[in-house]
Amino acid sequence: MKWLLSLLLLWPLTVNAAVVGKTVEYEAEGVKMKGWLAHDDAIKGKRPGVLVVPEWWGLNDYSKKRASMLAEAGYVALAVDMYGDGKTADNPKDAGALAGSVNKNPPLMRARFAVAEEFLNHQPLVKKNELAALGYCFGGGVVLNMARNGEPLKGVVSYHGVLATDVSVKPGSIKSKIRVFTGEADPIVPPEQVEAFKTEMAHAKADWQLVSYLGVKHTFTNPEADVYAAKFGLPLKYDAHADHSSWAHTLDFLRSVFK
Q1: How much is the pLDDT for 9?
Q2: What pLDDT digit, counting tens, does each position of 222-236 carry?
Q3: Which of 3, 139, 140, 232 could form a disulfide with 119 if both were Cys (CB 3.0 to 4.6 A apart)?
């Protein structure tokens, strides 16, 4: 794998008054990847970096919005392309196929995450080795697996991500602090999966916390969840309280891991 510093930077965009977002291209094992890099231009000096791994739809506007929110909070954020060439899906069949191509190929998942991690770590505004990762749904599972694999991230946050895994962990093997936000009424992350995750984290002696929101369903952080639910008959529902609560917890968590 390799990353390219002499990238093509496409259509810089001022998202808010001082937040600048732009499409960036880098390479992972011969495949062109298209991420979204955001920072607050009003902040001077280096700052920590945060990777954002998208839902199974791919790197869409929602992922870019989250990266921009992190930039507003004082970080350099990279919304990660896990599919290559910026591919996205607009229906569950295609989204499932794209996500499956990564989930069923753990070396590919690790390689694509690692090259994005390396790229972000080498950005001029990023404090070296001061990185964390956030993931939504599919992306939540990805960032948890990266923590299980011992990636040197200060912190990992999963929102309505699948908690089941084929990765075996040993006591002390997880280096990242972990926060998980899930919906108690999420059929995609059922209670038995949550309990198995708790057992796994205890066995790994990880620094972790899990927040389960009573009555909340899958994709609770995304305001488009209700649209997807109606259009495709999926068990999704946006929940403003869980969204705002999990984000506030996340900002506190990031401040704590980057002390």
Answers
A1: 40
A2: 999 999 999 999 999
A3: 3
Residue 136: inside a domain, yes or no? yes
Question: What pLDDT is attached to residue 17?
Answer: 60
Token pair, residue 230, equals 């109606």
- Alpha carbon of 51 to those of 38, 203, 244: distances in Å? 11, 27, 20
CA distances from 13 to 9, 32, 38, 208 (A): 11, 21, 9, 36
Under 8 Å between Cβ of 20 and 41: yes
CATH number at residue 186: 3.40.50.1820
Model confidence pLDDT, tens digit, residues 241-255: 999 999 999 999 999
CA pair distance 63, 135, nearest whole angstrom: 9
Q: Is 2 inside any structural domain?
A: no
Q: Which two tokens stand for residue 191?
A: 């209670």
Domain presence at residue 56: yes
User: What is the number of structural domains in the chain?
Assistant: 1
Percent of the chain with pLDDT over 90: 92
CA distances from 43 to 20, 21, 255 (A): 11, 14, 16
Alpha helices in 37-180 (DSSP H): 61-72, 92-103, 106-121, 138-148
Structure tokens given for 135? 């993931």
Helix (H) or strand (E) holding 226: helix 225-232
Is the residue at 3 inside a domain?
no
